[in-house]
Specification:
By secondary structure, this protein is an alpha+beta fold. It folds into three domains: about 35-135, Phosphatidylinositol 3-kinase Catalytic Subunit, Chain A, domain 1 (Ubiquitin-like (UB roll), Roll); about 155-265, Ubiquitin-like (UB roll) (Roll), CATH 3.10.20; about 270-315, no CATH class. Helices cover about 10% and strands about 20% of the residues. It has four helices and 15 strands. The radius of gyration is 23 Å and the shape is globular. The chain starts with 13 loop residues before the first strand and ends in a 6-residue tail after the last strand.
């Protein structure tokens, strides 16, 4: 009701929410907001030109003010492609969320202002899957990384066991020295749509078995084959491979060339040159201290590990 100074106080300061209820005025303001997004190619995550976290360089954000009206799938793609140096929006696909199975049409209208719509937070970003040929080279510089905050999200994985046509094989994402065939993938490295096909494609890339006949089995019993079109709910707590003790099975058949040259290819054939000193071993003996100029060998596979409650990227080589 009005007070003596003409200002309305008390009462139900709300507006209809379109469903017969009410919504606080603070949630109806059409103010500009940040739009969070993740970048991928069909093979896996793509590093952004403008990271916002020190331990996850594949997520970024733009202001809704930057997107030219009217706000559609096409205008959002054009804006992000410009920011990320992608050749053209026609070479990218936009998903409204990580769990979405179908991409947005270019003509789809988007609510990019206020407290609703896609890309509201780093936990629920929109997703751009970009053709690898259009992505362009990314800078290897880590300038400013130390000043960025770390994303505190819980690391979640798909666990799998690797087999060739003879027996179990050592996985490139192995994390347990006593069980080298058991590997794992961070769920955020798997591009949408989250299907068996996208998971299989990521595994083929990470394990370096392109061109081989591959198959995914639901568990180690091997009775159920996962079909490419099957959806996998990676953002839930229950999906094939969500438990380390119940991994899915990834099999591949080596061709003749693989069998004759496998021993000729060193497993850690890429080189890393240390650019700063780090005495991690003094704190945790499981880690290796580094000295400027020291050379490390790597297989180029990205892994995330925890060091004193902070996530540390061990390697970020494009493979």
């Amino acid at each position: 009701m009005p007070t003596g100074d003409g200002v309305h106080k008390g009462g139900n300061t709300a507006s209809l929410d379109g469903q017969g209820g009410t919504e606080p005025i603070s949630q109806t303001k059409r103010e500009h907001r940040d739009i969070y997004y993740r970048l991928y190619t069909t093979e896996g995550p793509l590093e952004t030109n403008h990271p916002i976290f020190s331990n996850d360089r594949f997520i970024s954000r733009i202001s809704s003010r930057s997107v030219r009206p009217p706000h559609t799938g096409a205008s959002l793609k054009r804006c992000v492609c410009k920011v990320e140096g992608v050749e053209g929006p026609e070479k990218s696909t936009l998903y409204p969320s990580l769990s979405e199975k179908k991409p947005l049409d270019d003509s789809a209208r988007l609510a990019l202002r206020g407290n609703s719509g896609p890309g509201l937070s780093e936990a629920d970003p929109v997703v751009f899957v970009i053709e690898k040929s259009a992505a362009g080279p990314k800078s290897a510089s880590n300038a400013g990384s130390n000043e960025l905050p770390a994303w505190k999200a819980e690391q979640r994985y798909v666990y799998y066991r690797l087999y060739d046509d003879d027996s179990e094989a050592a996985s490139k994402t192995s994390f347990d020295e006593s069980d080298p065939s058991l590997g794992r993938l961070n769920i955020f490295t798997i591009p949408p749509p989250h299907t068996v096909a996208s998971l299989k494609g990521r595994l083929v890339h990470v394990e370096g078995v392109s061109g081989n006949a591959v198959q995914l089995l639901e568990n180690e019993d091997g009775e159920v084959t996962l079909n490419d079109g099957d959806a996998i709910a990676l953002l839930t707590d229950d999906f094939p491979g969500s438990n380390e003790d119940q991994p899915i099975v990834f099999t591949y058949t080596r061709n003749a060339a693989d069998k004759t040259t496998a021993q000729e290819i060193p497993p850690f054939s890429k080189r890393l040159t240390c650019t700063s000193n780090w005495a991690g071993a003094l704190v945790d003996a499981a880690w290796h201290s580094m000295v400027v100029g020291e050379i490390f060998q790597t297989d180029g596979v990205v892994r995330f590990e925890t060091f004193i409650n902070s996530n540390v990227v061990l390697s970020r080589i494009e493979v």
